[in-house]
Each structure stands twice: as structure tokens, then as C-alpha cells.
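Saturday, quiet lab. Running sequence design on the C-alpha cells for the scaffold JK sent over.
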């Protein structure tokens, strides 16, 4: 069971999670991060680090976020690994609590 980055990350892209990942399974897109399910070792370290609570165990992804399981798998094959923490997006705080952001995702 892999962990999954969900909608809360879109337009925020906090990378605190990247710092604690022992296997570098995060991939970076323009305004979103994903977890490569083939690389994730289910260590749970990233979950507590996410300031917007965007990361869930695959079995615990909320019903309205289920599409992010496939989205993480798809985009992790296209995007490059991110292995160091970076600054969040400039307007991350403004977007942190916004719901319905899937349309904002840049591929």
C-alpha cells in the first residue's frame, strides 16, 4: 500500500515531506507533488510533515479524493524526482484551505 498526495497539495506544493522520505519517492510537477507508488515503502514519515494534510495511505484516501490514487501513479511516471526541500509556492497560504482545486492542477 502506497501513500497518496491529494488535492490539498495543488497550488501549495509544500515540500516538507520530501525532506523526510528515505527513498526519494516524491515527484514534482509545476504546482503539485505526487508519490511514486512503485517507490513508496509505506513508512508514514511524510504524513505528519505535510502542513495541509494532503497525504494519505491509499486505503484511507477520502471518497471524494479517490481519483488521486490513479493520478499519483500516472504523473509519477512523467515527472522528475524531487529530493530536496524547496520553498512552497508564493501564494500557498492563500490556497491551503481551498477545496475543489483539481482544475488548477498543471501537468
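Result came back. Writing it out in full:
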Amino acid at each position: 500500500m502506497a501513500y497518496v498526495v491529494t488535492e490539498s497539495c495543488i497550488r501549495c506544493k509544500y515540500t516538507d515531506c520530501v525532506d523526510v522520505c528515505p527513498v526519494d519517492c516524491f515527484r514534482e510537477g509545476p504546482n503539485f507533488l505526487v508519490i511514486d507508488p512503485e517507490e513508496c515503502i509505506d513508512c508514514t514519515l511524510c504524513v505528519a510533515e505535510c502542513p495541509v494534510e494532503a497525504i494519505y495511505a491509499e486505503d484511507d484516501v477520502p471518497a471524494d479524493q479517490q481519483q488521486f490514487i490513479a493520478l499519483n501513479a500516472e504523473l509519477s511516471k512523467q515527472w522528475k524526482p524531487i529530493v530536496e526541500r524547496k520553498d512552497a509556492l508564493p501564494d500557498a497560504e492563500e490556497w491551503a484551505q481551498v477545496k475543489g482545486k483539481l482544475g488548477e492542477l498543471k501537468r
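Notes for JK: Residues 67-76 form the longest helix (10 residues). The chain has one domain: 3-81. Ask whether to fix the surface positions before the next round.
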